[in-house]
Fold this protein.
Amino acid sequence: MRGFLGFVFVLLAALVVAALVIVPIVARPIVADTVREALPFRDQPVNVEVELNPVGLLAGTIDRIHVSGTGLRAEGAVIGELDMTVTNVSTTDHRFRTASGRLRNVELPFVQSSTLTITSIELDGPYGDVAAVALLDVRASLAVIGNAFADAGIAVDGLELVDGGIAFSILDQRVEVAVAVDAGALVIPDVLGGPLVIVEPGPDDPWRLTAVRATTSGFEIDVALEPEGMLDTP
């Protein structure tokens, strides 16, 4: 009996040692392939780097997943450069400890077959409190504002950016107004007696705007992300 228990211990020790060597080699490509399948880029070349250790994996955690790529297309958008990292990713509910990274030169479909380019989107934060900062240059900022006026049927001339907001002429009068965030949306608080919505999330969208900084160079917009709305949890 004693000898048999000793033999079982040797087998157990051998399995543990084998797991420490074999599991990372086997699991990394599996995780990388799973990540690629979950991303919306189909067969486009995306770099997926996975860091894990056997103990953490057995406990249901992957240490780090890093995804990068260039010229990626998805949902009509083109991402010039993608570089994102998540740490301590759960294999059971897909939660993570932190997320960080950036997207650069993101081209989005816009009105009349045109495109709108977001210069960059930087994101950082823990699960449940991931924040992003989107930068729009002068051209993109004016395009978004101009489209909002057009949709509202308000004809303006000489639209331009100023510190804190925008300026334009209406009925031969030059007006300067602020841009702000209200209830998760980007708005001009007072246009012809009421607010004008520029960008707003839908009821089911997993994001809300939290702040905006307007300068003569463009808009810098803070966005709060809601991971529960972006991740498929079992």
